[in-house]
Amino acid sequence: MTRAERAEYQRKWRATHPEKVKGYESKDRVKHAERRRIYSRKYRAEHLEQCKASMKSYQAMTRFRDREKVLDILGGACECCGFCDIDFLTIDHINGGGTEHRKQNSGRTMWEVVAKEGCPTNLYRILCTACNIAAAHTSDNECPCDRDRSKYI
């Protein structure tokens, strides 16, 4: 049997016996776990820059996907002023407690946390950076956009 014939035979056998293939693969993972771990560490050490670049692009893609999901569900614009530039939109905790929430979920972005929680609209809202800062620095957690402006004119 030639190499090509053997390869074709193995492809067909794997296609018709997926449960056996899965069992063999999991046994091999356990059997050779330490060898795989050593190889992975050696590869990462030799290709450090390539691995870092790959990881950064993966993380950026994941952050963007989480941000898009949250913005789609919570509305894609500032609730106060209607500003919709995605680079300046932030998550606001409606009832406060954002600092404590960030501390509990350190190492993860708020976009990731809110996306995993299912974007509850009763807990979070989208505000632009200006409205979010202004709301945080008022005693009643109210954005200046909501105030009566006639007294300032």
Overview of this protein structure:
The protein has about 150 residues and is mostly helical. The chain is built from 7 helices and 2 strands, in the order ααααβααβα. Strands 1-2 form a two-stranded antiparallel sheet. α4 (about 50-75) crosses α6 (about 110-115).
Summarize the structure.
Helix content is 60%, strand content 7%. The chain has seven helices and two strands, in the order ααααβααβα.
Number of helices: 7
- The helicity comes to 55-70%
How much is the average pLDDT? 83
Largest sheet: 2 strands, antiparallel
Strand content: 5-15%
N-to-C SSE series? HHHHEHHEH
Widest sheet: strand ordering: 1-2
Structural class: mainly alpha
Low-confidence spans = none
Distance between the termini: 91 Å
Shape: elongated
Q: How many beta-strand elements?
A: 2
State Rg.
26 Å
Primary descriptors:
7 helices, elongated, 153 residues, 2 strands, mainly alpha
How does the SSE layout of this entry go?
Blueprint: H1 3-16, H2 18-31, H3 33-46, H4 48-74, E1 89-93, H5 98-104, H6 110-117, E2 124-128, H7 129-136
Antiparallel strand pairs: 1-2
Helix pairs in contact: 4-6
